[in-house]
Design brief:
heterodimer, A: alpha+beta, three-stranded antiparallel beta sheet, 3 strands, rod-shaped, B: mainly beta, seven-stranded antiparallel beta sheet, 7 strands, about 5% helix, about 45% strand
Chain lengths: ~90, ~170
């Protein structure tokens, strides 16, 4: 017969034979026998998967600082070398 | 001229085989699954070549009237496994050092994670490439006792899943 057990370290539930060393050494815990009575064949395993919570925690978004805009002054525009004059 | 003295890695001592009862994703076992309390390191119970995993892939032949050759395509894979290892049942070590025989009770299901290329003593870490083989244990049979030998057993295993290049991922 197969016994339904839960692995406390991973959270997986699966069936092991009655003579399993995992059961004998107490490394897995038998689950509720009303829900999972001993079975002649191993049943499908139930994996425990750590997923992100369905709803993300509500956190106020951080306000990004806007970069300072520097208006080009008239002097700087005048000093700019026009294209084509680079040969001197 | 190319250097022909390419390095190689000795197999001795550089193989780790761990049995775990279950993994959620065979291609990506988690570190928590591979190092759980229920995981069993059987490397030192296996005899040399004792983890006999073979993968055979059939050929799909696809012949056409227009062709002068027979086209081939990769077909189904057949994975077979038999495990040969130390069996200390009934000896004075039966209660303390008989993890392989204890674990492989007939009908139990295991996943074998096998890492090559790192020392057996190095713990499994995230990013390690392992082969993951899921199997059901069959009947145990004795290895015939010979002169100057130790007691060994062979377990037939029935493979239902195999990932040759699984990667250990973070929990």
């Amino acid at each position: 017969m197969f016994i339904r057990v839960k692995d406390p370290s991973t959270g997986h539930e699966f069936d092991v034979p009655e003579k399993s060393s995992l059961l004998r050494r107490g490394l897995v815990k038998p689950v509720n026998k009303k829900h999972y009575p001993p079975s002649q064949y191993p049943r499908r395993a139930k994996h425990h998967i750590d997923l992100a919570p369905k709803r993300a925690p509500v956190v106020a978004p951080e306000l990004a600082e806007e970069p300072l805009r520097v208006e080009p002054s008239v002097d700087t525009a005048a000093e700019a070398i026009p294209e084509g004059d680079s040969n001197g | 001229m190319a250097d022909t003295n390419l390095p190689s890695t000795p197999a001795d001592g550089n193989i780790l085989t761990v049995l775990v009862p279950l993994v959620a994703d065979l291609a990506a076992p988690t570190l928590a699954e591979a190092t759980a309390m229920t995981a069993e390191d059987i490397s030192c119970y296996l005899t040399a070549g004792g983890f006999a995993l073979t993968v055979d892939q059939a050929t799909i032949t696809d012949e056409r009237e227009c062709d002068t050759i027979v086209r081939n395509a990769p077909g189904r894979k057949t994975v077979t496994l038999s495990i040969t290892g130390i069996d200390n049942t009934n000896t004075s070590y039966a209660n303390t050092d008989n993890a392989l025989a204890d674990a492989l009770t007939e009908g139990s299901k295991w996943v074998a994670l096998r890492r090559r290329g790192k020392a057996h003593t190095d713990p499994l870490v995230t990013g390690d490439i392992v082969s993951a083989t899921s199997f059901t244990v069959g009947v145990r049979s004795e290895v015939p006792a010979e002169a100057n030998s130790v007691l060994r057993s062979v377990w037939n295993a029935f493979v239902d899943g195999h990932e040759p290049d699984a990667e250990i991922v973070a929990s």
